[in-house]
Amino acid sequence: MYSDRILNADLSQKVITSEEAASFFKDKMVIASSGFTKAGDSKAVLAALAVRAKIDPLKVTLITGASLGHDTDAALVEAEALSLRLPFQVDRTLRKAINKGEVLFIDQHLGETANLLKANNFPKIDIAILEAIRINEDGSIVPTTSVGNSASFAELADKIIIEINTKVPFSLCGLHDIFSTGTYPNRTEIPITNASTRIGSDCIPIDINKIIGVVITEIIDSPAEIAPADESTMAISKHLINYFTDEVKKGNLTNSLMPLQAGIGKVANAVLNGFLDSDFENLTMYSEVLQDSTFDLLDSGKMTFASGSSITVSEAYYHRIFNDFDKYKDKVVLRPQDISNAAEVIRRLGVISINTALECDLYGNVNSTHVAGTDMMNGIGGSGDFARNAYLSIFVTQSVAKNNTISRIVPMVSHTDHNEHDVDIIVTEQGLADLRGLAPRQRAVAIIENCVHPLYKAQLQDYYDRAVARGGHTPHILEEAFSWYQLQKETGTMQRLCELV
Fold first, then answer.
1. 480 is a catalytic site residue
2. Helix/strand/coil percent split, the chain, to 5
3. In this predicted model, what pLDDT tens digit does every residue of 157-192 receive, in sequence order?
4. Which of 195, 239, 263, 459 has the fewest Cβ atoms nearer than 10 Å?
């Protein structure tokens, strides 16, 4: 019945239901699943595991590429089936459980998970669940809309369950570029010299003896929830476009810039869409996630090629793209995330990295993950992989949040994901601060002048002036550095309404 999807005759005899697949799992197992930012994830087996766990309790460790779709994480939490989760998530239910301590969470650089697994820094993977378009005669699989950590999971897992998704068209075959650097101490170089370089195979090799079941699904990826651009995000985009234009005039960049990387969400989409009405041309992308804006740029001709690890788009774009994917076959490639996020390649290509910050401080330190220093939001994702190694490391954020009650520029960030050494440029809707070549005190002046919302500028300037009076290379008043969070907790706003000291 599925002879066009399962080309190996022996494996065609291993087709089972998702419920039968769920019966393979045992308490305390380490499970790995394909999926990267809701794309190419397990849509049947993990859901069946959640149902089973409600009547047959068990707890497992779950490792993925990044976030899952279809409320899978929520279902597993509600079934009390998760003990440990890594390396990234975006689910509200799971987030609450993490912050209550009910589920342990390891927040990792997404480019490092596969390397840590290969170096035996985690327990052995018992079962991997991998979504595929097709199983080839030799047992290898063609991934769907993401690669993520799937190639490493296939190599390292004791047993494997394949989810064949019949909703994914065969036109995606040939999209992927699977390459492994090997293991220490015999790792090889990654010979990518531009965003479009292909260096590997279009399928993931699998030991056929590991495959214990094949589950058939026909469920598309969860759509990305991308809010439309607003006045603030368009202003951020404008500041960046103007900055790049000035860099071209100075001779520091060409009109094609360098390969772009952008994080997920409305700010990143707005920034990339800003290129549509610009004079830039022949742009390329070397990133993790290819979003709506990536395909707008490809369709417009402004971008010629995009490399990523997943395609995560809105529902409208999903149907538009995958119903006619042949038009993108020579313009897009998907790679394993330890290749898309490899420091070696990011540095070689001179990637311009644009990621979102929860907050920044006076000296350019960035918090990407923790609300008020304690509660996990989503995770660091790949922002650290790119920020540390990029030609330009840019962080964008709106200057205020929650109806102006929270300033995104604070005296000292409550949690540091990217220290000032890895942050080149900070942009808010107020303006852009280029921090390169500046000492800490000069950075503070640039950030206050360009990035802070008017409601908080005098307050931050007052803090800085009094800190400078105390002295120090990086002036701070430690007993006050985090007082803004306490003020917001007590009064509902970070704004000090009384007269400044």
1. no
2. 35, 20, 45
3. 999 999 999 999 999 999 999 999 999 899 999 999
4. 459
> What is the structure's pLDDT at 498?
60
Cis peptide leading into residue 205 (ω within 30°): no
Q: What confidence score (pLDDT) does residue 264 get? A: 84
Max Cα-Cα span within the chain: 79
pLDDT for the residue numbered 227? 79
> What sign results for the dihedral spanned by CA atoms 457, 460, 465, 468?
negative
Enumerate residues 6+ apart whose C-beta is below 8 A from 421.
none
Low-confidence ranges of the chain (pLDDT < 50): 499-501
Query: Sign of torsion, CA 455 458 463 467?
Result: positive
The sign of the torsion formed by the CA atoms of 428, 429, 432, 433 equals negative
Write down the pTM of the prediction.
0.96
Which pLDDT score is estimated for 205?
98
Residue of 239, 225, 353, 331 whose CA lies nearest to 287 = 353
List 288, 359, 420, 429, catalytic entry: 288
> Computed over its alpha carbons, how large is the radius of gyration of the chain?
23
Residue reference for tokens 């239910």: 93
- Contact call for residues 73 and 49 (beta carbons, < 8 A): no
Sign of the dihedral through C-alpha 315, 319, 325, 328: negative
Strand positions, DSSP E, 318-387: 332-334, 352-356, 359-361, 366-367, 370-371, 375-376
Give 275's DSSP letter. G
pLDDT at residue number 499: 47
> How many contiguous H segments (helices) and E segments (strands) does the chain have?
17, 26
**pLDDT for the residue 500:** 43
For 453-470, give one letter per residue: b (16+ CB within 10 A) or e: beebbebbbebbeebeee
Q: Please give the angle made by the CA atoms of 209, 215 and 221, to the nearest 5 degrees.
A: 120
Place of tokens 């009094």: 466
What are 58-80's pLDDT values in tens digits? 999 999 999 999 999 999 999 99
First to last CA, the chain: 77
